[in-house]
Amino acid sequence: MTNKDNQIVIGFVGTGVMGKGIITNLLKAKYTVEIYTRTKSKADTLIEIGAKWNASVAELASKSDIIISIVGYPNDVEQVYFADMGILNHVREGTVIIDMTTSKPNLAEAIYERAKEKNVYAMDAPVSGGDIGAQEGKLSIMVGGDLATFEKVKPIFEVMGQNIQFQGEAGAGQYTKMCNQIALATNMIGVCEAMRYAEKAGLQQVQVLKSIQTGAAGSWALTNLAPKMNNNDFNPGFYIKHFIKDMEIAIDSAEEMGLDTPGLSLAKSLYDKLEANGDGDLGTQALFKLFG
Question: What is its EC class (predicted)?
């Protein structure tokens, strides 16, 4: 589904840290973008560059060919899709709806089934790559749903990201994102410990990173978040409060499978301490503060 021959209207719900970058890239690609967020002032910069404001999700849904959402929590997703003024009560037949929120796999499945009843095509497509990935159009996108729908909207995903993988039926994108968050959770502990160890050993942390980030210890977190840790830069690219939400989903899902995840549980307990200290709105790299 390209935008060369006819004007595709994309509705976008959520203009937070991730949404702003994605919407900006869609506008640069000359798509018409209708937006909704609960606080209009937070979308002012997007309106200035061409996004069109809508007063409700229902209004946005009634005029969009494709609807994308990226909001905070599963209960926000439920509200956006299932409420009286939500997407599924006002969407047009034949529309593609894509939830990019990191949310519950079973919720993605419920949205898919309800959409199918209305001849609407639903996909779950959570992302990884943080605010930088969203701004640069370099996100990793993990997609669940129907393969034919995926192929249809892939050109739009390509505006947002570089690593775009179809994972399977509805919910598969969310399960894949849980794999990502499980791997990231314990990796963040290792990155924090490594940087504090380098500091205590009297090494130059920047120089240490030059050696280890391209070796066997290399990771996205080591390359992108360790420098922020070393500069005591805890501004959010991804909020601690949202990471805790993701870990809760992953733990619950693992328990349903009968799977023990001790590393994930440890990481969540550490992040819970940060949130209890009032640091929930900091970036995930603020875990570094606990390693003195």
Answer: oxidoreductase
